Amino acid sequence: MKKLFWLAAVTFFLGACGSNNVKNEDASLGEADRSSTPAKVKKSKKDGGKSIVVYYSLTENTRAVAEEIQKQVEGASLRIETQEPYPEEYDEVLDIVQAQRERNELPAIVSKEITLADYDVIYLGAPIWFGEPALPVEQWLRENDLAGKRVYPFFTSGSSSINESMKHYSKLLDGSTLGKGLGINSSNKQHTAELVEEWLAQLD
Predict the structure, then answer these.
(1) Separation of alpha carbons 72 and 54, rounded Å
(2) Residue 126 near residue 165 (C-beta atoms within 8 A)
(3) Closest Cα partner for 121 from 144, 142, 161, 152?
């Protein structure tokens, strides 16, 4: 009889411990779900429709920012490429770009299939060259009609301000809604993920 009573007590004790463990695991899952939900809701609100990240990148700095934006908004992506690649030597690139600007010449870009009617929001990325967006991006804008779209520019540079680039876009995108721009430079690029998140939270 004593043995039966002892077995019953042990069984009850083990059952109570098991129940507490399950409750604790459920609580942890609940906290994780609650903490991740606001980020997902925020992204869908800021998206406001289908989005695409369109960018040109020479040194891969702009590509890194574009990929971070794409990850956070869960949109599509399109990389602009020139038919004739720019040289790898940066000084040579500057000479070519300066000559192209003086001649009002834009580089030919690779034609890529894209149905812009499918997208409401365009995140437009470019490095800043001589205070203005890279020429391949300007060529892409001339080849594609963004009327009625919401365009949010982002830029990379060594230390340049984005002000002149934004003014340039305001002329090129007069039929679009031009939103707040983002600038990533040498001094803050290590915080790209945080800066992108803050920027997206400020967009209309």
Answers:
(1) 15
(2) yes
(3) 152
Interhelix angle 2-47/192-202, nearest 10 degrees: 70
Alpha-helical (H) ranges within 107-162 are: 135-143
Q: What is the DSSP-derived secondary structure letter of residue 116? A: G
8 A C-beta contact, residue 126 and residue 62? yes
137 touches 80 (CB < 8 A): yes
The Cα–Cα gap between 138 and 51 comes to 20
Closest CA to 135 of 84, 185, 195: 84
Round to whole Å and give the CA distance between 125 and 152: 9
Residue-wise pLDDT tens for the chain (204 aa)? 444 344 344 343 334 433 333 222 222 222 223 222 233 323 333 445 799 999 999 999 999 999 999 999 999 999 999 999 999 888 899 899 999 999 999 999 999 999 999 999 999 999 999 999 999 999 999 999 999 999 999 999 999 999 999 999 999 998 999 999 999 999 999 999 999 999 999 997
Give the length of the chain: 204
